[in-house]
Amino acid sequence: MHINTWVQYSLYLILLIVLAIPAGSYIRKVMNGEKTFLSRVCVPLENLIYKMTGIDKTEEMNWKRYLKGVFLLSGIGLVFLFLLQLLQDVLPGNPEKLTGVKWDLAFNTAVSFVTNTDWQAYNGESTMSYLTQTLGLTVQNFLSAATGIAVLFALIRGLTRTKTDRLGNFWVDITRILIHILIPLNLVISLALVGGGVIQNFDGAKEVTLIEPVVVDAKGNILEEIVIDPESGQVTLDGKVLENVRVVTKQYIPMGPAASQIAIKQTGTNGGGYLGTNSAHPLENPNAFTNLVEMLSILLIPAALCFTFGQGVNDKKQGRAIFLAMFLCLVVAMCIIVVNEQAATPQLAQGGAVDLSAVGQSGGNMEGKETRFGITASSAWAAFTTAASNGSVNSMHDSYTPLGGLVTMLLMHGICHSDSIYSGSYGGKNTGISRKED
């Protein structure tokens, strides 16, 4: 295997560790009310929210009141998102004039996003208005991730406080997580993604002229090696005029506020794509830079929370042990996936008719993968997203080799059964990554 593969993998993993350790300490300080480098900006805003909502930040809750807060926030979010989808055709922020979402799909989507599952049975660009995407789905991405982190800290306090039944204040925890952690982090990531070419606007969809027309038959299959007469418009193949074909000269380009939702879909381990093909779409993930940013974002908070946990229970070794166990599983998974995808299978070679070598081209099993990422970046993403129960994809996992696909399923199986709170999910993601691939 080419040395470039191992260089890329080493870069991904080193950057993850370098970023996760200080992030873990920062999260602990925020949740303990300690001073950080953002306190001068965030604390006044935090106190303003307490004043406006009547929250007493010195008041603490027992587990019953804390749990009620979790259910109340989730219940309000569920109803709001459900109604927002039903009424999106009469609300602003809908330049494509999309109709209201059917009640069953709206309910399914609301439940999915409120519980941090983010299972999707729709294409975002043709189903959800800009208002629904931003005020509905993006907001729930923030709230569901914040709720998961808050529950983790309730657990930490429950383990360390032996002389009281107080677990903190749910509303204070949510406010601090949003104001000090998620919003600043995702603002930086959003700007990085926009700089890398990810769309972020409120323009209507664009219709552009293709450089070369495309001819499709009645079944929608693209025809190749055809000739189009520029005057008559007749389409011929080997000198024979073709009937019942359509010449496509225009392309639909979706627009909208994608970068802001993509950032939190990764850092909150949400995974719900702004566009139907998720981070395999060039407008969600244009190049190697955005791919690196999005992929690191998937595991940044889960990895950081391992160190936060160790510091929170006054046993840093325990936090490092948890991280190391997860890290080793990730490394092994990545290696197995990339080796199998690069080697492909004898069946894919088709008796030598298909070149699977890696000399001068991607080689290996490129089925279902984007050429701008290749096998290495695709395999790493597959391991990252299934290890974190994230769900976003930059390649289609059902096109992986049997052994490569087996590893992603094992990661999904392990995460779903452990219901890892470190991933920011308090509701579990029992459907796994396949929900994003259809």
Secondary structure elements and their pairing?
Elements: H1 3-31, H2 39-53, H3 63-86, H4 103-114, H5 124-127, H6 130-160, H7 170-195, E1 206-216, E2 222-223, E3 227-228, E4 235-237, E5 240-241, E6 246-253, H8 258-267, H9 288-312, H10 316-343, H11 346-349, H12 374-387, H13 402-418
Antiparallel strand pairs: 1-2, 1-6, 3-4, 4-5
Structure description:
The chain has helices spanning 3-31, 39-53, 63-86, 103-114, 124-127, 130-160, 170-195, 258-267, 288-312, 316-343, 346-349, 374-387, 402-418; strands spanning 206-216, 222-223, 227-228, 235-237, 240-241, 246-253. By secondary structure, it is mostly helical. It has 3 domains: 14-202 and 258-307, no CATH class; 210-253, no CATH class; 320-436, no CATH class. A hairpin with a 5-residue loop joins strand 1 (206-216) and strand 2. Helix 1 (3-31) crosses helix 9 (288-312), helix 8 packs parallel to helix 9 (288-312) and helix 10 packs antiparallel against helix 13 (402-418).
Tally of alpha and pi helices: 13
Apparent shape: globular
Which strand-content bin applies to the residues? 5-15%
Secondary-structure element order, N to C = HHHHHHHEEEEEEHHHHHH
- Mean pLDDT rating: 89
Cα(first) to Cα(last) distance is: 31 Å
Biggest β-sheet, characterized?
3 strands, antiparallel
Query: Unreliable stretches, pLDDT < 50, 5 or more residues?
Result: 417-438
Work out the oligomeric state of the chains in this entry.
single chain
Main β-sheet, spatial strand arrangement: 2-1-6
* Helix content bin: 40-55%
Q: Tell me the number of strands.
A: 6
CA radius of gyration is: 24 Å
The overall number of domains is 3
Structural class: mainly alpha
